[in-house]
Each structure stands twice: as C-alpha cells, then as structure tokens.
Design goal:
The protein is an alpha/beta fold and about 475 residues long. It folds into four domains: about 100 residues, 2-Layer Sandwich (GMP Synthetase, Chain A, domain 3), CATH 3.30.300; about 150 residues, P-loop containing nucleotide triphosphate hydrolases (Rossmann fold), CATH 3.40.50.300; about 70 residues, Orthogonal Bundle (Helicase, Ruva Protein, domain 3), CATH 1.10.8; about 90 residues, Orthogonal Bundle (Chromosomal Replication Initiator Protein Dnaa, Chain: A). The protein contains 22 helices and ten strands. A five-stranded parallel beta sheet has the order 7-8-9-6-10, sandwiched between helices. Helix 8 packs antiparallel against helix 9, helix 17 runs antiparallel to helix 19 and helix 17 crosses helix 22. It is globular and about 70 Å long. It starts with a helix and ends with a helix.
Length: about 475
Amino acid sequence: MDETSGLWTRCATPLRDQVSDTTWQMWLSSIQPVSYDGHTMVLGVPNTVVRERVEGRFLPLIAQTVSSAAGHDVDVRLQVAERVVTGNGVVERSSGTVAETHPFFQPEETGRVPATGDRPRDGAVVSLDPRFTFESFVAASSNRLAHAAAQAVAETPGRSYNPLFIYGDSGLGKTHLLHAIGNYVQENFLSRKVLYVTTETFMNDFVDSLRMSTTIAFKRRYRECDVLLIDDVQFMENRGGLQEEFFHTYNDLHGAGKQIVLTSDRPPKSIDTLEDRLRSRFMSGLITEVDPPNFETRLAILRKKAEDDHDDIPNDVLEFIATHVKNNIRELEGALIRVTAFASLNREAISLDLAEHVLADIVATVDPRRITPQMILEATAASYGFTIDALCGPSRTRPLVTARQVAMYLVRNLTDYSYPAIARVFGGRDHTTVIHAVDKITTHMKERRQLYEQVTELTVKIRNGT
C-alpha cells in the first residue's frame, strides 16, 4: 500500500464515524485517493455533483481528519476522476452526467429498488433531499407552530419536543419539514446519525427481516440512530405486527433520549386501529397541525419558487394563481410550472393574459370533480395507446416509460397522493422512482413543446371528465 492510499485508509474510519450512514453512502463512500505529496492530498470523486456537495459541506471535516492522520496540516483538493473505484468495482466516467455516475440520481426505471438478493435493504433508505431546508420553507400562520417546533427539535435533538407529531392534508409541507430537520442535524451535528424513512419503507424492511431472519440487523439499524424521522405513520393502521415492532423501537429510542419525529394526514386519535399504547405515546409529545395556506402564504410560496427558479414573474400573475389555487401547494406550484413552461416554449413574455389562457381549465372549474389515480391512468393509457396494466407493469420501453412518467406527474399534481402512495399505484415501485419521474416531466415541459401539449391536454380532459 503506497503512502497516499495508506493515509486515506487511516482517515476513512474516523471520517465515517462523524457523519450519518446516509451521508457516507450518498456523498463520501465513492471518494478515492489520487495523490499526496506531503502537503497536498488530491481526492477523486465520480462527478461534479458530488464534488460541489462535498466542497460545500464536508471539505473542512475531511481536511481536519486528513491533517490529524498525517500529523500536520494538509491541504485537501477534489477533482472529478476519470475512473473511480467503489465497493461495486470500477465506475467508468463517460459523459460525467449525474445519472451515469451517482447511484442516487438514476433514470426512472433503474431508480427502483431491486430484488432483495440484488443488494442489501440498507440501500432502500430514503435519502434526505438537500432542497428541503428551513431556509426554503415558507413559514406563515398556517404552519408557524409546526415550523417553530421543527426548528427547535433540529437545534436540540431529543431535548425539546419528543416525539414531535406533525399532521395535515397531503401537499402542505410536512415532508419538507422532516427533511429540513434531517438536513439541519446532519449539517450541524456531524456525529449524530439521522434516519429518514417512510412508513412503507419501515414496513418493507421489517417484512424482509422476518423473511431473511435478519431481525437483529433490522433492530440495530433503526435503534442506533440519533434522530428517527418517519413519514405517513397513518399507514400503520391495520398492521398489528408492524405496530408491535415500532412500539419497541419507539421505547428503545425514546428511553435513550433519541429524537423521534412523525408525520400523518390526521392526528393520532383519528388513526383507526392504532394500538392504544402507540396512540398514547404519539400524544405524549407535541402535536401540531399544518393547515392549508391562506392567500398571503400562497403568494409567498409562489414568489419563493419563482425566485429559486430564477423566473421573473409579474405580481399580477402570481396573485392570479394564488387566488384560484387554494388548498394544495403541489397544485399551486404545478400551475406556475404550466405558465412558465408555456411562455418558455412559445418565447412569450409572462403576462396575466397568458396566465388566464394557460390556466383556463382551473379558473373555469367552480366545483372541481374529485380526481382519482384510476381516472388519470385511464386517460393516460388512452392518450398514449397503452393499457393500464402496461403503465403499472415492469416494461421499460421508451414510449411506455414516458407515458408512465406523465401519469405519475399527473397523479402527484392532481391528487393528494404522497410519493409512496403513488408508487403503490404503479405496481409497488420504490417512491424515489416517482420523485425522479415528477422532476423529469417538470423540467422537460419547459423544453419540449409536444410533451407540454400532451400534459396540458390530459390535465384539461381529466379535470373536465371528457
């Protein structure tokens, strides 16, 4: 082993001990030593996304760890390497795109969770979304208590409100707050381990542990974290075995002073078939509700999104959208995307007339019909010439994948279904597949006229029931 590899080997263990398992796997595990001249160490990373993330958040920690191992100050630099050796072998860097070189950013179909025999279940842990922070959250009267409580929990894990239970309708920002807590703790408490999962993931891990006789590893994984964030706990109802396991996990973590944060679409007392012992524990901490945003909050959310996307949107356009889209932040942002995408495709300035034209279906819908995923599947299948079974099936042919992603985007924007719930609609896929699909269609609508017209036409048909 040469001096460069030897130094980095001595750094790996202490560095890993100072970050969460998710952070290590997602951002640091692929780093490999390139050179060391006694004063400067060059480390190779697989792509620019990893380099920017590591430089922005972890480079001082890495430099400190390397300097400590070397016994003197060492300057650490990063470079995108042509070949990066990982635990899976050699990753060839071709075009350097994120999808090709980083396991978290994968195309729609490869983002699914493989069969258990393909890789460990640890890979199914939902990674924190770096976009969801307290800074990007719009705090207002409808969510002020939940926002303040989440910040308090993030600043003093295990000491403020434990557990913290946040409830409210889908699409109002509960998941954003969970990710914000996790991101804050990871950034400010490097030795704390954060675990964010959906209830569906917790359930799948539990079932796999029973099937594979790995319950000890399962318990260790969930009980050795410092902050446990669980989304959509209402899905525990009618699952006695799962509730039993979570009861013991809760007691173990709470007894050790570890922080627990839960979200649901309803308060604990309204979750049917939830065991009384779990209900009482959920109610022993702080319970806070996230309400639908008022006009001022909706306007602030639109302005924030326009600012983040570097879009110059006239105030009267933002006010028009905020006036007509009232109950769901997803639909609110979806309306803004439709307007900006139309303007971009047609090279027109964004104006009130343009917004009124693009969103005519929303304005005309005085008493909107209740839209279900089945309606969206039927409309999308008919439009693209596929069957519903094909849309929800395993095939990965390109035209079918596009149709499936459009359907996922529409379910996300036209219903109150969460990402895990949408994943179940589409054949039990992993919910990161849905996230990728929604993000991809959102981006491509601004670039591809045909796709924009297809999505808009489907939206109008589904809303009107035609």
